[in-house]
Design goal:
This protein is α+β, with helices and mostly antiparallel strands. The chain has 2 domains: about 250 residues, no CATH class; about 120 residues, Conserved hypothetical protein from pyrococcus furiosus pfu- 392566-001, domain 2 (2-Layer Sandwich), CATH 3.30.1760.
Length: about 400
């Protein structure tokens, strides 16, 4: 069963939260971070991407970078911009993006549960990215970016959350991207006990986003042998039916020596092809294809999707297996320089822009992977193809920090 516990979060002063809290370190480049934070000394990017405060030729994995992050982190604490709560609490964290709203529980989850697969994974991790997060945690003695977890929704927890989000929030701000972030502190010992008891009934948690953060936390836990608070890691845990998954689209550098006409002919053998298609596919096993200034609709022919394997039925798997590898010659999308991935938050207009600029030759727009597919694959111990899901909205770093000493 899932083991979670309250913790005394390090949190921003409410009136400074909008200036401190930032998008995760891994959704932007160093140049973009430098531009965002240049006029804001409180921006948490000075902690999560501290290379922005050093010369641009410094390697982002240089020891100086981690040391600078610690210096900036301790400065925010010493100046009172971040303050640690006096006792262990749970927290509720609501995000509103356009017409979508989701509320998660902020809690410390068990590293042992991560290692024994009570917290289930669906992606491989890269050692270099794990190493980076380990060094970040070790240098700060804190986890500053939460892991995004989900669970199969439970009515009792839904009711508890609904009751508690009607009270006056402890933090409430709208970020520059228009996403509203609201937080409540759960201080009542009875409420804390109720949350712990309800989660003790939940057999598994699932990583939606944050595989490298959770893997790094597990490694720190092992190296420190659970000393201090290192046996737990920072999470926000959402019921599965509140999550919003956007597509993760593909753009291709070239046509692998084919003419557009020859490529279309090959695609017509795999898909039912609609000459004037929509940019955004309407359902599973449908794709949009952009080339030569127009969108075509692609619908996988039935015999290509006739399988009970949950991984083989994913559109990203089907596209790789029957199109990207045999037609475009892209055997490994993880390493190929001829393919790139565009998060659905950028819209299909971004795909058109990239192709129209001649930087890319064509683009595929995808239908989003479902959270049910993710959980089914994780339950089976499977690994999803790279770039299968794009969750929005993103959790903001520094809304809550978990100190492990």
């Amino acid at each position: 069963m899932a083991t979670i516990k309250p913790f005394p979060a390090l949190r921003p002063k409410p009136d400074l939260a909008a200036r401190i809290c930032e998008l995760p370190y891994d959704v932007m480049s160093s140049a973009e971070a430098r531009e965002i934070a240049k006029d804001n000394p409180l921006s948490f990017l000075h902690v999560s991407k501290p290379e922005i405060d050093l010369p641009s030729n410094v390697d982002p994995y240089d020891g100086l970078v981690y040391a600078k992050g610690r210096e900036n982190f301790l400065k925010l604490i010493s100046e009172g911009a971040l303050k640690k709560d006096p006792a262990p609490y749970f927290y509720l964290y609501r995000q509103v993006m356009g017409g979508h709203s989701q509320v998660g529980l902020v809690a410390a989850a068990s590293c042992a549960d991560y290692l024994n697969n009570t917290i289930k994974k669906h992606e491989f991790t890269r050692p270099d990215k794990e190493d980076d997060r380990v060094r970040h945690i070790e240098t700060l003695d804190s986890q500053t970016g939460p892991v995004f977890l989900t669970y199969r929704a439970q009515p009792m927890l839904d009711q508890f959350v609904s009751r508690n989000v009607t009270s006056v929030p402890d933090v409430d701000f709208t970020a520059t991207d228009g996403v509203r972030h609201t937080a409540w502190v759960i201080r009542s010992t009875d409420d804390i006990a109720l949350i712990e008891a309800e989660f003790a009934r939940i057999p598994f948690l699932y990583i939606a986003d944050g595989h490298h953060r959770s893997a790094a936390a597990g490694r720190v836990f092992q190296s420190r042998k659970g000393a201090g608070a290192s046996g737990y890691f920072l999470t926000v845990i959402f019921p599965h039916n509140q999550l919003q998954i956007l597509p993760y689209n593909r753009v291709l550098k070239d046509l692998n020596g084919l003419t557009p006409e020859a490529l279309i002919q090959k695609l017509d053998g795999i898909f039912n092809l609609q000459e004037d298609g929509a940019a955004q596919p309407a359902g599973k096993h449908q794709l949009g294809f952009y080339i030569g200034g127009r969108w075509r609709g692609l619908h996988f022919r039935e015999h290509f999707v006739r399988t009970n394997d949950p991984i083989e039925k994913l559109d990203v798997t089907l596209l790789q297996k029957f199109v990207l590898d045999p037609i475009f010659g892209i055997e490994n999308p993880r390493t190929s320089k001829r393919i790139n991935f565009v998060g659905g938050i950028r819209g299909t207009g971004e795909l058109e822009k990239l192709v129209n600029s001649d930087e890319y030759a064509c683009a595929f727009s995808m239908f989003p992977t479902s959270i049910e597919d993710l959980m089914t694959i994780a339950d089976a111990g499977g690994i999803m193809p790279p770039k299968s899901t794009w969750f929005e909205p993103k959790l903001r770093d520094a809304m809550f920090c978990h100190m492990i000493v």
